[in-house]
Design goal:
alpha+beta; Structural Genomics Hypothetical 15.5 Kd Protein In mrcA-pckA Intergenic Region, Chain A; Pseudouridine synthase; 3 domains; 3-stranded antiparallel β-sheet; globular
Length: 320
């Protein structure tokens, strides 16, 4: 075998001249090349004599998102905009790792082809985002005029937004304002953090609505947060910076063990918190100026079942 000793990417480039070396290296790194039962992810892998390889090329991804029949809870809709009460697990727009099955795909199917291209090809109608596992209210535009107006309202911090969060422990001050520059963690691109310089200004106002557990050292608390800015993961990062990360947050949170010597109801409450399957964050309130109707619209969303169940379990810590 003349190619014995060649790098794997060089070997594949010779066999598939229609594919660039960079494309082949990406396919190798994503596990698309196998030899027998072995998956090879190293482009520098050296070819052995008489060795066979199989290259799997994934189907092409549509350049523009397409409509998909995904259930939506519509809170309000007219010919200009739509307000959705988003469920947990739904990504807002297509991105790496989530090419479809998103809110954008659902909106295109629900609103029709006219939504395509509003505000851009990849994220039509999307003015703001909620994280995949954050539930609650989100507004999307159906026309360029409304898209522009809503974007300006968000930029001017004229949108009323309130979130309910369940956190570990409870802030010492019942209410306050968290300020801190937020930037992406240079060592983990999936995490954001409060930094001293180089980040974006971020401000969050919070108010403790309810505490769970001993007065001197609460186990958890229900906190209302109102955004003055809209940075990636802002509430999650700010509350973590305050020392009270969200219950269930896989990126910023931390579980607490079940204390000993408690009754069955209290042990169940601790278990409900430690086992909560997502970050306990819900977009409770959304208010904005409708640019066509020329009036303020304001919506409130009830807690989803899992969030309400968590609250009810934690209330057991306060006794009957």
């Amino acid at each position: 075998m003349a190619e014995a000793g060649w790098r794997l990417d060089r070997f594949l480039a010779a066999k598939f001249p229609e594919l660039s070396r960079a494309r082949l290296q990406a396919l190798i790194a994503s596990g698309r090349v196998t030899s027998g039962r072995e998956t090879i992810k190293d482009a520098n892998y050296r070819i052995k004599p008489a060795q066979d390889f199989e290259l799997t090329i994934p189907p092409p991804v549509a350049a523009e998102p397409v409509g998909q029949a995904i259930p939506l809870k519509v809170v309000y809709e007219d010919e200009h905009l739509i307000v959705i009460d988003k469920q947990a697990g739904l990504v807002v727009h297509p991105a790496a790792g989530n090419p479809d099955g998103t809110l954008v795909n659902a909106l295109i199917a629900h609103c029709g082809e006219s939504l395509k291209g509003v505000g851009g090809v990849a994220r039509p109608g999307i003015v703001h985002r909620l994280d995949k596992d954050t539930t609650g209210l989100l507004v999307a535009a159906k026309t360029e005029k409304v898209m522009t107006s809503l974007a300006k309202q968000f930029a001017a911090h004229a949108i009323e937004r309130a979130y309910h969060a369940v956190v570990w422990g409870a802030p010492r001050q019942a209410e306050g304002r968290i300020e801190g520059l937020i930037a992406r963690n240079p060592f983990d691109r999936k995490r954001m953090g409060v930094v001293r310089g180089g980040g974006k200004e971020a401000r969050t106002r919070y108010r403790t609505l309810e505490r769970f557990g001993p007065t001197s050292q609460p186990f958890a608390a229900l906190v209302e947060c109102r955004l003055e800015t809209g940075r990636t993961h802002q509430i999650r990062v700010h509350l973590t910076h305050l020392g009270h990360p969200l219950i269930g947050d896989p990126t910023y949170g931390r579980a607490r063990g079940t204390p000993r010597g408690r009754n069955d109801a209290q042990i169940a409450a601790y278990g409900a918190a430690a086992g909560f399957a997502r970050q306990a964050l819900h977009a409770r309130l959304l208010g904005f100026h409708h640019p066509i109707l020329n009036r303020t619209l304001r919506f409130e969303s009830d807690w989803p079942a899992d969030f309400a169940g968590l609250i009810e379990s934690l209330r057991l810590l306060n006794g009957p």
